[in-house]
Amino acid sequence: EAGVAQSPRYKIIEKRQSVAFWCNPISGHATLYWYQQILGQGPKLLIQFQNNGVVDDSQLPKDRFSAERLKGVDSTLKIQPAKLEDSAVYLCASSLFRTGSKEDSPLHFGNGTRLTVT
Amino acid sequence: AQKITQTQPGMFVQEKEAVTLDCTYDTSDQSYGLFWYKQPSSGEMIFLIYQGSYDEQNATEGRYSLNFQKARKSANLVISASQLGDSAMYFCAMRATLLPYSSASKIIFGSGTRLSIRP
Predict the structure, then answer these.
(1) Are strands B74-79 and B64-69 parallel, antiparallel or unpaired?
(2) Chain A contacts of B35, Cβ < 8 Å?
């Protein structure tokens, strides 16, 4: 089974520029997550999709961050304009778990995109 | 508020010894799940073990076991016979409902414990 694919692996941009990250989840996984992990901290959930609908985006800075999951498969996360404090690893994860299901399932993570904003 | 607390920022353990990584959680949910992940220096997040809140037995997966004490709201990870390759960051995580009486949920993470194994 192919894992969660993310690209690019690394990105360096200047502040006020824009950047986009791409994620392809494991085939058949209904739920897709974007996490931000600042160096030395635990992952922080930015947005969660189930199929192509947003389940939770309460911690997404909506003035600069946006995300979409067209057709319930691939997803893109965009930052515009970037700030210095956006420097972090952006992790995409997917799981089989469906809201309301009694069966739990772990998150499967991609390798992440390391963003440096200068 | 739903929260995961890991109070040990870093630990050093001698190779072949057992080690316990602490995790406490706060939730008002009746049903929830607890996860442990390993993050080596290469950055990938590796799922280790899962415990459901209604599971009566502590979960085990090879050298990993989860010491689940529901009344104390703790879910400590125990690694037996530690190896050099166990050196990594370890994160405790919990599935928590988004709103009271809601079936929608999210997974929240603790701040992690950096485990270093000494040869």
Answers:
(1) antiparallel
(2) 106-107
On whether any CB of chain A is under 8 Å from the CB of B107, the answer is yes
Find the CB nearest B91 among A42, A45, A99.
A42
Are the Cβ atoms of A89 and B43 closer than 8 angstroms?
yes
Chain B residue closest to A58 (CA)? Answer: B98
**Separation between Cα atoms, residue A53 and residue A74, nearest integer Å:** 13
Q: Is B108 on the interface with A (CB under 8 A)?
A: yes
Contact A93, A28 (CB under 8 A): no
CA distance A98 to A95: 8
Residue type, A69: R
pLDDT tens series, chain B, 119 aa:
789 999 999 999 999 999 999 999 999 888 899 999 999 999 999 999 999 998 889 999 999 999 999 999 999 999 999 999 999 999 999 998 877 666 788 899 999 999 999 99
